[in-house]
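Worked example 4.2. Below are the chains of a multi-component assembly; read each line carefully before continuing.
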Amino acid sequence: MTFRCPRRLYDDQLVNESTELAIRLRGAVKRYGAITAVAGLDLDVPMGTCVGLLGPNGAGKSTTMRLLTAQSIADEGEIEVLGFLLPAESKMARAQCGVAPQLDNLDVTLTVAQNLLVFAHLYRVGRHERREAIERALVMAKLVDRRDTRVDKLSGGMRRRLLIARALVHRPRLVLLDEPTVGLDPQVRQELWALIDALRSEGTTILMSTHYIEEAERLADTVMIMSHGKAVATGPPHRLIDEHAGQEVVEVYGSPARLAEVETEAGAAGLRTRRTGTSISILGVDGAGSPVEGERRPANLEDVFVLLTGEEID
Amino acid sequence: MATNAAAPPTQRLHRFERPALTGVLVREVVNFSSYWRSSTFSSTVEPTIYLLAFGFGFGSLVSRVAGRPYVEFVGTGTVATAVLFSSAFPARFGTFVKYQFQRTYDAILAAPVDTEELVTAEALWIATRAGVYGCVPMLVAIAFGLNPSWGMLVVPAIAWVSGFGWACFGIMIAGYAKSIENFSYVVSAVLTPLFLVAGTFFPISNLPGWAQFLANFNPLHHCVELVRHAAFGFRWWDLGRLGALVLFGVLVWRIAIHAMQRKLVD
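Applying the procedure described above to all two chains together yields the following structure tokens:
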């Protein structure tokens, strides 16, 4: 995907139609005192795609999200959202973005429809389009029959769907989802995945942060693995797996002493390994074969993540 | 690929726009529908109790103050108390709760709304409530013998201007406070002294000269005097008092924006 530098906005042209990137970060740095939350991040999110930021807690995902809404100001680097330079032009960018935060910040004493009404106003949906916009958001989030229910009477999954519906009420060109399914049970998570997938199939550009491997693997066209505020690998999930972990992995179970032996043998054969609790995984065995016998399984994104960052993830 | 996204907007967005103010105000109005009873109760009953307690308590000892029956004197004075109670106090707690616990401001600032617009709209809404609630003690005083006058029609406007300043003051305190416990310092060291030397319950002219001089820097005192003069007849120097209230409002408005910008945008 090529990036064409957006025309500056000094003239009457408000949106750069030629840009093919919804988000462009170059060398973004954000420090909080001695802590560097984002450490020179480069990120491209092409229009019409879903990009997942995958990393453990503290990797810098939420700070990156805040940088994109100018609620955090980068200490260094360049940030463009929908062709607008941040933070100077962030208001224009925010008008065309929808944000579903990690922390539930709905107005709990209001009904579902009232929450959407408030945000239809905040996002400047025209008076004549407001009713339709609210209906559309309710339908998309499957909350039509809950429109008059107070938020504090909703389940956790419904509240999360409402957060996403609220982000969609003005039909944004770009949606930022910060850990959209964190803390939800598997069934509710599946429902939200269906909702995000529907958005994706309609061509909405999505940037989603997550620390769930499966979520990134299922929904994202491109995954950026983050660790300590940096991108350690970027690409489509299957390509990242092929490049870093191969197609198959051999998993060997045994005593700690046995696992240490296996680790040594695999290392001697030029194969990479990773510890997975009570077992050890030998990566990239498809071509070379494994020096030891064990259970074969397809390589996954978690193998890549642990290999590249040395950190375990949920 | 077909897209569900809206067409890009055709207008450039600027600083300090009416739609952003309207959006925040709509949120406040819609929310108000769920808590107006408790808010109205606390903002009107407390000053009314002060009015009745002082009016009848002291009124039995002191029949006339500054040439007026004491109940009329205190009835007009407690308008400022009602304004303070319905603006500075809810602004402080409301602002702190919305950014610290409910994270409401994070949601609003993710929309095309800036901190300046957010603070202004919040203060406008609180000032409007103060403009209404501020009149309650005066209406109670009328029921107890205060003679209505045409000048009283401007009391809601005086309460609104004063309420805007105190709302901004409350937001400013919330913006600088590190924890909700810090509010106690402000109440004890700032609001209580200002409240007591505003001329609400006794004339400032009875205080020592230095205290009378300092009272000129107390916005609550100017509100008390303006309301009293609205009821009993304006003086030419009331323009100065109005100017002082406007100056107070503008000053704390800008400081409140600065405090909240630091708090909300890191």
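Take a moment to check your reading of the output against the notes. Chain A has two domains: 49-68+86-235, 247-298. The domain at 247-298 of chain A is CATH 3.30.70 (Alpha-Beta Plaits).
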